[in-house]
Every structure is written in C-alpha cells, then in structure tokens.
Write a structure and sequence with these properties.
- It is built from eight helices and nine strands.
- It is of the alpha+beta class.
- The protein has a single domain, classed as Alpha-Beta Plaits (2-Layer Sandwich), CATH 3.30.70.100.
- Strands 1-3-2-9-5-7-6-4 form an eight-stranded antiparallel β-barrel.
- The radius of gyration is 18 Å and the shape is globular.
Length: about 240
C-alpha cells in the first residue's frame, strides 16, 4: 500500500482503530537552500520518515511546508510518550545514520534547525474516538515562552476560553497544547486545520479580535522566531 492509499484509508475509516495519537510530539523544523530541495525531500520521504515510523512508540508522522512563518520545513511525529525516543531501535537508528542521512539531514545542510520533544498538557486525555485520526492537512504551530508570574493564568485562559472558542471556527478540527521536555521555548500549541486558509477566514479574524488573553493574564509572552507558523502537509501528499 502506498502513502496516498494509506492516507485515504485512514481518512475514511479503514484501519481507524489503529492508534495514531499518543501523549507526546517530536517536531523538527529546518530551512534548506533551494538547490538542496530535491535531495532533501527525497531523503525525508523515501528513507527517513519511514525509518523513524518503524521504531516502537512512533505512531504516525508527516511533513509540512510553511505558507506563513517558519522555518520552512516541519516534520511532526506523533509519539506514544517521550520514552519512545529511548527505545533500542530508535537509538540504533540515531547512532547509525545512513550515508544519505549524513549528506542531507537537517544537521548536515539545515539552517535554523530546531528539534524539540513535547509532552501533552491539554487535553489531559485524548478522546478515544479520535486517536485513530491521521495527520492533519494543515497545522498552525505556536511556540511560546511565558513569564512565570502569568504562567498559571495563561494556561487557564488557553484551556478554558481560547481553545473552546477557536474550536467553534469552521475548519478548526482539533487543538492540543504541549510542554517542552527537550528544547525550547516552553510551550507549543498545535491547531489542526482542514486547510491552511482557516487563519485567513473572517470567522478566525473575528475571534482573534474578541480574544482577551492579554487583559486576562495581565502581561505578555514571547513567540519563537517564525511563530506562529501555518503549515501545509506535503507528505503524505494531499488530494487537494
């Protein structure tokens, strides 16, 4: 079964019982020079992503390209838990890179590369009816540092006010929030969208204008460079 067939099966229910969402993420952001695109994308799609998904605890994964913000390329791996990165198979892969990996991986040719591991803090438990869903067609990724004095109010507002409101917007499918266990900044918010134009809709803009996070928490927080970024899925390929 090819990647496109697998994606179609996932989206329309065949194999829906397979768990594809855990409690952690591995995210890898990078920019590469345009002349490296062909080899870089072929390596990721043909060798690296399938290799990583063969390791225990790696439930699903996909690659995205930025349409807003950055870095340009993003790989997202859904993990059973952060402990997936301690398995003997994953460590074997990491410690024995292929020749192709040595030549074109983000550590070899990437610029501004970021590799972070996150554990999920919202929702506290994933809905068992949705853990079989595949990788979203589009994502918005926010990466934030929050001062300690407003941290509690920030989390309260995000979970009880901002997220429920955003989930009412057409095209916004799911929202999950994470805390960094490797790398920084401290928080990551992942919006799963039907398409990458959701943040350009009138409904999204109207909700953004109504949002009162700043007033509620009594302060401000900082975004990492390129955040929030909006990303279109490029592998497995989309049908639209």
């Amino acid at each position: 079964m090819g990647w496109m067939d697998f994606d179609r099966f996932t989206r329309y229910g065949v194999g829906a019982m397979a768990k594809k969402k855990g409690t952690a993420l591995l995210v890898v952001f990078t920019d590469v020079d345009s002349e490296q695109d062909s080899d870089f994308n072929a390596w990721y799609n043909q060798e690296h992503l399938p290799e990583r998904l063969s390791a225990p605890g790696f439930l699903d994964g996909a690659r995205y390209e930025a349409v807003k913000g950055g870095p340009r390329y993003l790989a997202v791996y859904e993990l059973e838990s952060p402990e997936a990165l301690q398995s003997s198979e994953y460590l074997r892969q990491s410690q024995n890179p292929t020749e192709w990996t040595k030549r074109v991986s983000p550590t070899a040719i990437g610029r501004g590369s970021v590799r972070n591991v996150y554990t999920q803090i919202f929702p506290i438990e994933n809905d068992p009816h949705t853990v079989g869903r595949g990788m979203a067609p589009a994502l918005q990724i926010g990466r934030m540092d929050v001062p300690a004095d407003i941290d509690a109010k920030y989390n309260e507002y995000y979970d009880t006010i901002r997220t429920p409101a955003n989930l009412e917007i057409p095209g916004c499918l799911f929202v999950r929030r994470y805390h960094a266990v490797e790398g920084d900044p401290k928080y990551l918010t992942m919006y799963e969208f039907e398409h990458e134009k959701v943040p350009e809709t009138l409904a999204w803009e109207a909700q953004r204008e109504r949002d009162a996070m700043g007033q509620y928490i009594g302060g401000s927080y900082g975004h990492a460079p390129g955040s929030p970024g909006v990303y279109r899925r490029v592998f497995p390929p989309r049908a639209f």
